[in-house]
Automatic annotation (TrEMBL), chain A:
Span of the signal peptide: none
Pfam families membership: Aldedh (PF00171)
Domain of life per record: Bacteria
GO molecular function, one term: oxidoreductase activity, acting on the aldehyde or oxo group of donors, NAD or NADP as acceptor
Protein name from the UniProt record: Betaine-aldehyde dehydrogenase
InterPro entries the UniProt entry points to: Ald_DH/histidinol_DH (IPR016161), Ald_DH_C (IPR016163), Ald_DH_CS_CYS (IPR016160), Ald_DH_N (IPR016162), Aldehyde_DH_dom (IPR015590)
Species the sequence originates in: Streptomyces nanshensis
Keywords of the record: Oxidoreductase
Family: Belongs to the aldehyde dehydrogenase family.
Domain Aldehyde dehydrogenase positions: 34-479
From TrEMBL, chain B:
Keyword Lyase found: yes
Family assignment from sequence similarity: Belongs to the DeoC/FbaB aldolase family. DeoC type 2 subfamily.
Name of the molecule in the record: Deoxyribose-phosphate aldolase
CDD domains named among the record's database cross-references: DeoC
Transmembrane portions of the chain: none
UniProt-listed NCBIfam families: deoC (TIGR00126)
Gene Ontology biological process terms in this record: carbohydrate catabolic process; deoxyribonucleotide catabolic process
One GO MF term attached to the UniProt entry: deoxyribose-phosphate aldolase activity
Pathway entry: Carbohydrate degradation; 2-deoxy-D-ribose 1-phosphate degradation; D-glyceraldehyde 3-phosphate and acetaldehyde from 2-deoxy-alpha-D-ribose 1-phosphate: step 2/2
Domain of life, per lineage: Bacteria
Length: 480, 335, 339
């Protein structure tokens, strides 16, 4: 048996648990309906390019209907005692737990991320988020937002495709807890879990119109943002779109929170707990195929240990299992769309063209679908595009530093300010670095950890406002 | 990071001599062990937990079950042990599943030193010639005895035919920071593993009793200390304290042997012992071996399970895999 | 300065009304020249003149990086009292002045934000102490600029000083109110702390040149931000005089920079500046078109924008913590808990 190799046999999760309909409408005022002009678009599985379903493309009239439904629902919903609102949200949390496996499979199919992540990260966090904010609904006067904080009204929410259901939870849970009603637009390439969430709302008995889901592309989102009937815009996505939204709402009364891009630095000192640092680097940039706004996409390693660390890192990357996201042993799944894949390729190619050295662990990529092997670049300087621009893919740029001051200067040398990592065994250095890093989330000796109680959001061009925790309530309350 | 992982880069030309410097004095040994990279407990445990979610199916599972059986040090370490009990265990080890002769034999029978001769004879007589006899020694499990007693214990076991010696370190000395004493004791026991008449010396497994060392940093230091002193295997625990083998502790020791080989070219084995009772547990350990130290360690020469009840669960899972039906305790032998 | 309180007693020859200069920055430098002697003595210190001594007038200057430069453009504009009497020529800041001020504010940010909260609190309290000694000067300037009675102006100044004291006390408390430990579901220490946003452009209220100014400036700097203040366009003198107080109150140079001039002109430069992190639009109250324009420009680097209150602001009311929180970022730090 010594000549055998321990190859893990395929361990596919069954997709029988989820029943995807051939087409879905818009969820407005508690009912599914087609777009007024009958337009639809297809959503595909990025791992196979199989068409999963056909989804309605909401137009201006549909968005208007959704906003009106949310407006109508607002008065009774906001007038409901907090304790009663809370119970609806608790119900949602419970139904999400009950249907976690189904939704995990659905999310993996529509997004391309590994089932291990949807099962172990996305879905547990989704339910936890609703459970957390449910408890706030009847305690808002104790939240430090003034003695009688009021909901804003109708929230227009636009979410990205990288964590479709989790981003929905981050948006909808605090909005409902604070007494707002919502019109949510999921990303064009990952609409299904939001539509399934509509059914979760139905099972929870949520009053009609409190949650409305309009599917569509950027045009639908623009309609929603510009609609005069909304009081709040919450957006997670690219910085470029975030800026456009900020311009659109300028001069209005609409309250705005933005959670945008990042170029997080993961800083490894020579006294780091090296094996855990390697895990943290891997988790920082290859989790969710690197399609994470807070990804540790820049590795800043102290020059004295660069060689050893890279050796360990490369050894570890050789063990990453890339492939079928439905396989329970897959670590890295498919890139979400052909468009995103093209962008990753373009930036990776620029890294080579600008003189950085490219390395990927040998791995076989499936023939169909959108795939990009986990990649790292060494010899990267701050001037390279791959050190400055958000790649939003499994591509790590490795830079070096000599002193803590240099590490801080390089880490902060970006218009972004979402996340940063620090790896050192020296406690006082951690605290000093954490103070100096201009980022909304600093992970010390860990990375990419999330929790409903923990505020998340950026400095500078990574956006403003916080999601999660007590701080997350502020985005949906009139605190003046 | 001044240590394990730097060693290959900084001392690639002459790793052995560099590490010889390390052990030259108590002070240098201490500096070296305390200069090893720290271990973040939460990160280590999270990594082990992630690996534990690997789903091993069908052919991979069949392979893993047989491999696990072949890696077992089938153990009895009781005050009530008798020659009869030891002979019965040897028979089981040589022929684990009477209903299926394709079942691999275990790696070793692990007993107290006074039972080593009995085990040796029983294996020779019962078709278990290739199965090793492992004897615990050095005032197992506490290790609280004079060095002379520990060495006599070891020599007796070797003389009785033990192929492998499972020694315990002096945890008291280790926790008191007396690394030199622990180091020298391991060297002395290693020396006692030699056979007076020549022949292959007994392989030395060094038991740390991780549950008593308490921290991962200590486990990493103990690993390097033992490897530097000449251990052939490093072993988690005696099975006699509250906390025995754990997946994160074993993962950490696998990192140590991986880094030690990178630094010195010498491969050392790892043996978790105590508390591994189910086939599912065993497969998780194999996954950790595979993804930490690598496939080179997926062999009974380099990885062992110190266990007793584990074998029957592996056998039941094996039967399930072959027949498609869940087995039960009545279909495996109780020895 | 000592004769300031007497100023109210007489209003002599009014200077030519500055007319369009109040709304047109470009024409301000080409006002019809007047005899300096006449203009100054008539507008500001008639009593001194009456008793036979020509008063020494103050040249109002910008406050940038702890220094008092003139506008690099060489421009000034006429500041008059509520009845159109000439009070002084104020520097008419240019885009380059704004740029210099941003550089100074950025340079000062590291030290100021890194100072202990106790230290910042003491410095703000020191500002109040210094103001207390100059209450009469500010009362006169507020009365002239806002057309208030002496009593009303005095009440404004008292409230403004009290506001500095109030905000001084927040320096080492806001982190406890706005931050805290988060009970995450895992073995992690998790702490959220408010941190200053950075360089903040403050368009101070137009109608409340000193109390309003204190109400928008103090909350910005007490938390460690550095500020670029565009004072009330019509009544900039209290703000310019405040600079002198700040310079003698241990406020490090660059922490507060005062750019008198046209709100639209300076505001536009600051709103578009890529190294400004936030924008307080209090000074655009009543001009929604300008507010929208500046907010739109601010989107380019995603400045935090504090919009003016829709119905105006009562600057005498309890300000609460909202202006403090508007220019704070929440940083959340995680660390594993393990042995």
């Amino acid at each position: 048996m010594t000549d055998q190799i321990f190859e893990y046999a395929p361990a596919p999760e069954s997709r029988a648990i989820v029943d995807i309909a051939p087409s879905y409408g818009l969820f407005i005022d508690g009912e599914f309906r087609e777009a007024a002009d009958g337009k639809v678009f297809k959503t595909v599985s990025p791992a196979t390019e199989e068409v999963l379903s056909e989804v309605a493309q909401a137009g201006a009239g549909d968005v208007d209907d959704a906003v009106r439904a949310a407006r109508t629902a607002f008065a009774p919903w906001s007038a409901l005692p907090g304790a009663e609102r809370a119970k609806y949200i608790f119900r949602i949390a419970r139904v999400l737990q009950e249907r976690a496996r189904e939704l995990a499979v659905l999310e993996t199919l529509d997004n391309g991320k590994p089932i291990r992540e949807t099962r172990d990260a996305d879905l547990p966090l989704v339910a936890a988020h609703f459970f957390y904010y449910a408890g706030w609904a009847d305690k808002l006067e104790h939240a430090g937002m003034g003695p009688a904080p009021r909901p804003l009204g109708v929230a227009g929410q636009i979410i990205p495709w990288n964590f479709p259901l989790l981003m929905l939870a981050w948006k909808i849970a605090p909005a409902l807890a604070t007494g707002n009603t919502v019109v949510l637009k999921p990303a064009e390439t990952t609409p299904l879990s939001a539509l399934f969430f509509a059914d979760v709302c139905r099972q929870a008995g949520l009053p009609k119109g409190v949650v409305n889901i309009v599917t569509g592309d950027g045009a639908t989102g623009a309609e929603l943002v510009a609609h005069p009937g909304i009081d709040k815009v919450a957006f997670t996505g690219s910085t470029a779109v975030g800026k456009q939204i900020a311009r659109t709402v300028a001069g209005t009364h609409k309250k705005l929170t933005l959670e945008l891009g990042g170029k997080g630095a993961n800083i490894v000192f020579d006294d780091a707990p090296v094996d855990q640092a390697v895990e943290g680097i891997v988790n920082g940039i290859y989790f969710n195929q690197g399609q994470v706004c807070c990804a540790g996409s820049r590795l800043l390693v102290q020059e004295s240990v660069q060689e050893e660390l890279l050796e360990s890192l490369k050894r570890r990357l050789r063990t990453l299992r890339v492939g079928d996201p439905m396989d329970k042993n897959t670590d890295v799944g498919a890139i979400n769309s052909a468009e995103q894949l093209a962008r990753i390729r373009e930036l990776a190619d620029s890294g080579e063209a600008e003189g950085a050295e490219r390395w990927s662990a040998p791995c076989e990529l499936p023939g169909n679908g959108y795939w990009f092997a986990p990649t790292l670049f060494t010899g990267v300087s701050q001037a390279h595009r791959i050190a400055r621009e958000e790649i939003f893919g499994p591509v790590l740029s490795v830079l070096t530093f000599r002193t803590p001051d240099e590490a801080v200067a390089k880490a902060n040398n970006t218009p972004y300010g979402l996340s940063a990592g620090i790896w050192t065994e020296k406690g006082s250095r951690i605290l000093s670095m954490a103070n100096k890093l201009r980022a909304g989330v600093v992970w010390a000796n860990t990375f990419n950890k999330f929790d409903p109680t923990s505020p998340f959001g950026g400095y500078k061009e990574s956006g403003f406002g916080r999601e999660g925790g007590r701080h997350g309530l502020e985005a949906y309350l009139d605190v003046r | 990071m001044s240590s394990a992982s730097t060693a290959p880069a900084s001392t690639a030309a002459a790793p052995a001599s560099a590490l010889a410097d390390v052990t030259a004095s108590d002070a240098s040994l201490r500096r070296y062990l305390h200069g090893l990279p720290g271990v973040d407990a939460v990160g280590l445990e999270a990594r082990a937990a992630t690996l534990a979610t690997r789903s091993i199916k069908t052919t991979a599972k069949a392979y893993a079950l047989d491999l696990a059986i072949s890696m077992i040090d089938l153990t009895t370490l009781e005050g009530a042990d008798t020659p009869g009990k030891v002979r019965s265990l040897c028979a089981k080890g040589a022929n684990p599943d009477p209903s299926d002769r394709t079942t691999p034999q275990v790696a070793a029978i692990c007993v107290y030193s006074d039972m080593a001769a009995t085990a040796k004879q029983a294996l020779a007589a019962g078709g278990g010639e290739r199965i090793k006899v492992a004897s615990v020694a050095t005032a197992f499990p506490s290790g609280r005895a004079a060095l002379s007693v520990k060495l006599a214990d070891t020599r007796e076991a070797v003389a009785a035919g033990a192929d492998e010696i499972d020694m315990v370190i002096d945890r008291g000395a280790f926790l008191a920071g007396d690394y030199g004493k622990v180091f020298e004791e391991i060297q002395a026991v290693k020396d006692a593993c030699r056979r007076p008449g020549g022949g292959e010396p007994a392989h030395l497994k060094v038991i740390f009793e991780n549950g008593e060392l308490s921290t991962y940093d200590n486990i990493r230091r103990a690993s390097w200390l033992a490897m530097l002193a000449g251990a052939d295997f490093i072993k988690t625990s005696t099975g006699k304290v509250a906390v025995n083998a754990t997946l994160p502790g074993t993962l950490l020791m696998l990192e140590a042997v991986r880094d030690f080989r990178a630094a010195t070219g010498t491969q050392i084995g790892v043996k978790p012992a105590g508390g591994i009772r189910t086939a599912k547990d065993a497969v998780r350990y194999l996954v950790v071996v595979n993804e930490t130290a690598g496939p080179d360690w997926l062999h009974p020469d380099w990885f062992r399970f110190g266990a007793s009840s584990l074998l029957n669960d592996l056998l039941m899972q094996r039967q399930k895999l072959h027949t498609g039906r869940y087995s039960g305790p009545d279909y495996v032998t109780v020895d | 300065m000592s004769d300031e309180p007497k100023r109210k007693t007489a209003k002599a020859a009014k200077p030519a009304k500055s007319g369009t200069s109040a709304t047109s920055g470009k024409t301000a430098t080409s006002q019809s020249p007047k005899s300096p002697a006449t203009a100054r003595t008539s507008g500001r210190t008639p009593v001194g003149a009456a008793r036979g001594r020509v008063d020494v007038l103050k040249t109002y200057k910008l406050f940038i990086g702890g220094k008092f430069p003139r506008s690099e453009s060489g421009r000034v504009y006429e500041v008059t009292d509520s009845e159109g009497n000439w009070l002084a020529n104020a520097p008419l800041s240019s885009r380059k002045d704004a740029r210099d001020a941003v550089a100074a504010a950025r340079k000062a940010f590291g030290g100021w934000s890194g100072a202990t909260a106790y230290n910042r609190g003491q410095i703000l309290y020191r500002v109040a102490e210094m103001l207390e000694g100059r209450r009469e000067q500010f009362t006169a300037e507020v009365a002239a600029g806002e057309g208030l009675s002496k009593a009303a102006a005095s009440a404004q100044v008292d409230a403004a000083i009290d506001r500095w004291v109030w905000y001084a006390g927040w320096s080492d408390k806001i982190a406890q109110v706005a931050g805290g430990a988060n009970p995450v579901a895992g073995p992690f220490f998790n702490l959220s702390t408010p941190e200053p946003t950075g360089v903040v452009a403050v368009l101070a209220p137009q109608d409340s040149s000193f109390l309003g100014l204190a109400s928008v400036l103090a909350p910005v700097v007490v938390t460690g931000n550095t500020a670029l203040v565009v004072p009330s366009e019509r009544a900039p003198l209290p703000a310019l005089s405040l600079s002198e107080v700040l310079a003698t109150s241990d406020v490090p140079g660059g922490v507060v920079n005062v750019l008198s001039g046209r709100t639209r002109e300076v505001g536009s430069a600051l709103a578009a500046h890529q190294d400004v992190n936030a924008l307080d639009l209090a000074g655009t109250s009543g001009d929604p078109e300008l507010a929208k324009e500046l907010e739109t420009a601010a989107a380019e680097n995603l400045k935090r924008v504090l919009r003016p209150d829709e119905d105006g602001t009562d600057w005498s009311a309890d300000p609460g913590t909202s202006r403090l929180l508007a220019f704070l970022e929440t940083k959340t730090v995680w660390h594993p808990i393990g042995v």
